[in-house]
Specification:
Elements lengths: L12 E2 L18 H26 L13 H9 L6 E3 L5 H6 L4 H8 L24 H14 L6 E6 L6 H13 L3 E7 L2 E2 L2 E2 H4 L8 H5 L2 E6 L3 H16 L5 E6 L18 H8 L3 H11 L5 H23 L8 H4 L7 H7 L20
Parallel strand pairs: 1-7, 2-3, 3-4, 4-8, 7-8
Antiparallel strand pairs: 5-6
Helix pairs in contact: 1-2, 1-11, 1-12, 2-9, 4-12, 5-6
Length: about 375
């Protein structure tokens, strides 16, 4: 039997900033000092917000909450590479991405408090609402990207998900279509090593998740997910490729979930403490701060000022969220339908008009 030569694929790995704050000069993205400061400040704000939201849940002032702890570089680095008019399709852990996109923090708190008004304003910021069902947002992102292409727009869609989502049928369907139709979409997988209590090694036998891209005929890259500069550079390249007609890219950001899956989980029941401690030494905030300090671009005084400002901003967001008037029964379906069905229209006729309370959100009146 005649045999053709075996297909060989290769997945590149990108790290720009190591754990000691040292950079590989050949791969450093072209960023001004002010942009580096902005990245670090966004990561610090995300961390402060995350810590406060966790405490609010423990105090009974917030519902079940999914922490971002440890994944700030993957989120902020990629978000900084996305122009405002491109679209973001998040899962449920992308608080850092949403903060970078300008979604008010009080809206995020409202959402996790079970108030659907928290998702108001997402559309105006070119973001879809949170997607809690694992992987279901992947086909949505591909459909949006294909719509942009068919309409002649130059828009790009960034879709976020975790390692667990790569085991779903929706992931397969979405990447198949993206490959076939060269959809302008960037898939950003935050591989935080755990799909709730299932470790990465029990999810997939492949050496990397990024190599799955080869099977779909799209570009794939593995990046150090705790390196904000690598995440920025990889996303920027992928966005430019998509906008130029080169199709989709699958980015695996190799990172770690330092907290529990959510506040309803106890990771100590299935995860070794020594593993967590090892990853704490790779803290993405500490890594970038070391780099800035070594370059003479940061100081303890500046850190203290930033921390105080972040705490004030988060305090204000908590106050605004908790000052919201209680939602009424009409809000159960008010933001569900673009065109409500007739039975719902009949019910709505007897309800008070919406609008006044949404002005207090500090966001926008449109539903995403």
């Amino acid at each position: 039997m005649a045999r053709s030569s075996a297909f060989q694929g290769q997945i590149p790995f990108l790290q720009v900033l190591d754990e000691h704050g040292q950079v590989d000069a050949a791969d450093v993205p072209d960023l001004a000092v002010g942009e580096l400061h902005a990245m670090y400040e966004a990561m610090r704000l995300t961390r402060v917000f995350d810590e406060r939201a966790f405490l609010l849940q423990r105090e009974g002032r917030l519902g079940t909450y999914a922490q971002t702890l440890g994944q700030e570089a993957a989120q902020v680095g990629s978000a900084f590479a996305l122009p405002p008019l491109d679209w973001v399709v998040p899962s449920y852990r992308e608080n850092g991405v949403l903060i970078c996109r300008g979604i008010p923090m009080q809206n995020i708190l409202l959402y996790w408090g079970g108030d659907s008004r928290g998702m108001l304003g997402f559309k105006a910021r070119h973001c879809l609402p949170f997607a809690v069902p694992v992987g279901t947002q992947v086909p949505h992102a591909v459909g949006m990207a294909m719509a942009c292409k068919l309409r002649g727009h130059c828009g790009v869609v960034a879709c976020y998900f975790g390692d667990g989502a790569t085991s779903t049928g929706d992931f397969h369907a979405g990447l198949t279509m993206a490959g076939v139709f060269k959809a302008p979409v960037v898939f950003i997988c935050q591989n935080n090593q755990w799909a709730i209590s299932v470790p990465r090694g029990r999810q997939c036998a492949a050496a990397t998740l990024a190599q799955k891209a080869i099977g779909y005929g799209i570009e794939g890259i593995l990046v150090d997910g705790n390196d904000v500069l690598a995440c920025y550079a990889a996303t920027q390249e992928a966005v430019e490729r998509a906008r130029g007609g080169g199709g989709a890219t699958f980015i695996e950001a190799f990172t770690y979930r330092l907290g529990d899956h959510t506040t309803a989980d106890d990771a100590s029941r299935y995860r070794d403490a020594t593993e967590v401690e090892a990853w704490q030494q790779r803290d993405p905030l500490l890594r970038l701060r070391r780099h800035l300090e070594q370059a003479g671009l940061w100081s303890d005084e500046r850190e203290a000022m930033l921390l105080a400002r972040c705490q004030r901003d988060v305090d204000a967001a908590v106050k605004a969220a908790e000052a919201m008037a209680a939602a009424d029964v009409a809000d159960v379906t008010r933001y569900t339908y673009a065109k409500p069905p007739r039975p719902r229209l009949g019910q709505a006729a007897a309800e008070p008009a919406a609008g006044a309370e949404t002005d207090k959100l500090g966001a926008h009146k449109d539903a995403a």
